Each structure stands twice: as C-alpha cells, then as structure tokens.
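Dear colleague,

Following up on yesterday's call, I've attached the two folding results inline so they're easy to grep. Please treat them as preliminary; we haven't cross-checked anything against experimental data yet. The first protein's sequence and structure tokens come first.
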Amino acid sequence: MQVSVFTAASIGNALALVVAATASGGIVGSYAVGSGTQVSTVQFDFVTLGTNETNTYIYEVAHGEGLFGDDLFAIIAEAQPSFFSHEVITFSFGDALFSVGIGSDFASGFGTAPDYLDYWHYWTRESAGEAWSESWVGFSDRAVTNGSWDGWVFNLWGAPAAVPAPGALGLFALSALGRSRRRAMVCSSAS
C-alpha cells in the first residue's frame, strides 16, 4: 500500500519553487479578492529609482457589473484592511491617486523635480493578451469589464512590468506541489 506523505516541508518546497520562478519578474504577492461573476486585475509596480528594481503586486478582483477603476480599490481595501492602503485626493478636474501601501511597500507623490517620476502612472488594457496603454481618463471614470487590467506604476515612465497572468502562477504552484507530493510518495513506498 502506498501512503501519500504531504508534509509542511513539501508545501514549503513547492512555494519556494514558485517564489524562485517569479522573483525575476518582481512579483511579491498575488491575491484574489471580492465576489461576483466578473474578474478584473489590478497590478501595482513599486519601482526603485536608479536600479529599476520592481516589486509587483497582482490583485484578481471579482466584482459585479457597472464598476469603475476606483471601485476595485474599495474592494481590495475591504478585503485587506491592515495590508492594503491608499489615498485619493480630489481636485476640480477629478480624483488623483496620491499614495498606495501594500505590505511593507509604500509610495506617495505627485511628481517632483528633477525627474517628475514619483507619482502613480495609470495604465489600462482590456485583456491580458493586449499591450498596456496609458490611460486618458482617471480611474474613477474608467469602466472596468470582465478580464480588464488596470496597472499602476510608481517611479517609472514605462508600462507595468510583464508578468505571467495570475492564473498561470496558480497552475505553476499546483504542478510544483504535485512534483513534491510524487517524490514523497516514492520515498514512502521504498521504505
């Protein structure tokens, strides 16, 4: 009789494989929040000036119809009240994202001299397969749809970092976990 051994160590090894595989992409965390029949993705890139090293956070946000980009922030903040924070400042021309804090990463600003990069640049795309475009509307005016992506980049003029789709990360984690489990089964049956 073969016994499946599924230990904390095998889970830890599988998670270490996922982290090692995504470290070059700069993904610090990937989260699924909210509820509803539609899913939009929000990506946050915290870029370190001078090195262009990026800490990326990906949120798959489940929601209903008729929402806007700023509504996704409310869903994330409600799901992670002690982990995710943001500040929006309202002007006569509309709302502007001033700061975002996720875990130990925090960035705020509206663009100061000499490089004017220290603000949250807003990018959008309608699906993971499309190229990013700079948004010409504010996030309180951007209607999100099923499969749409909103990207936020701090300290860089360029588009959000290229990352695997959040579902691909989950599949990789499951396959790595399966390999650890098979190795554990082989070891236990040889005993």
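Below is the second protein, in the same order (sequence, then structure):
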Amino acid sequence: MNRLSAKQKAVFIAEILEELYPKVPVPLDHKDPYTLLIAVLLSAQCTDVRVNKTTPALFTLADTPQEMIKLTVAQIKEIIRPCGLSPMKSNAIYNLSHILLDKYNGEVPQSFESLEELPGVGHKTASVVMAQAFGVPAFPVDTHIHRLAYRWTLSTGKNVTKTEKDLKRLFPEEIWNKLHLQIIFFGREYCPARGHDPLVCPICSKYGRATLFK
C-alpha cells in the first residue's frame, strides 16, 4: 500500500476521532472564564482529575478575582498543594487576580497577547482559555497531543511550537477547538505513552508509524 500524505492521514484521523468522540466535554471543571483560567494554570504538570478534586475547595472560598485577592498566597498555596508546584502557582493566581482587577475590570481578557502577559500563563494555557471559554480557534498542544502527533507522523516532534504549527496546517480551523480535546481523550483511552499496543489502537493499527508510515 502506498504511503499516505500528511493531509490524507489527517483526514483519516479526524474521521476516526469524530466517530469515537462526537461530543467532548471540557475536562477541567469550571463555571466561567476565570475559573477555567485558574484550573488550566493548576493543570501544569498535574492531571485533570487531580485538579478537579482540588478546585472545589479553592472556588468555594474564591471563584472571582475580587474574592481571590482576599486570600493570602499562603492560603492559596495550602489549598492547591496537591496539584504540585504550589509556590509558583499560588503566587501566579494571586498576582494575576490583582492584574485582572487593576487592568481588565475583573474580567479575563479575550486575546492571546493579554493572556500570555499574565503571571503563570503561557501560550498553551492562553490557547485553552481562548478556545474553551471564548470559542476562538486555537490548537492547545499538551503532552498528549505533542506525543501523538509524533506517533502518528503528523509532526517531527521537535517541540510543541512546531507541533502546533504542523497540526494547524493539516487540520481545518473550524475543527481545532473540538479536535484538540478529541486527541486528548483518545490518547488517554487508546494510545497511552506506556503499555500501548499499536495493533489494537484504532488509529495506530491503520495509520501509525508501526504500519503504513515506516
């Protein structure tokens, strides 16, 4: 069988993901852009499950910037400790809440540039917020997506910036926001980093490095 082009692989993969995950929930529990921003910030080097177990205690005390700055950094740190990196994350949450109040009237800004200027907010976090809170086309690349893009030969895997650029080139913009979630769910269920069997994986068994694209 002839080797497929990257565009052809992308079409096949998108079709499989849409069949498996026609509806995809946002993995992080939140009620508005601010609580999503905090949840995504906490998810750095932490599982979504752990974040969702931790945020209720935090959001019960403070689910707005106005309430968050009434807490001390030490209080925030103690609550979010299970998520890891609590010294850095607690400072970021406290300081970005002040900035939102001082500069944006307490609202989460709706631009990549403004979000990325906030403490603790990188491009991936900004992309998640823009996509999931505001519906702006984005392709947040986390470790799952970065790994699978390489496994599926959609990108060279050199870095997340290159992976994001490659995926945006291969997939239509109108499906980016849903597709990045579909890939995350697929990676967890069918295509894990360890213990993966490419012969039974719905994508790798047909389109991965182990078969068509050697």
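For the second protein, one point worth flagging: Residues 86-104 form the longest helix (19 residues).

Best wishes,
A.L.
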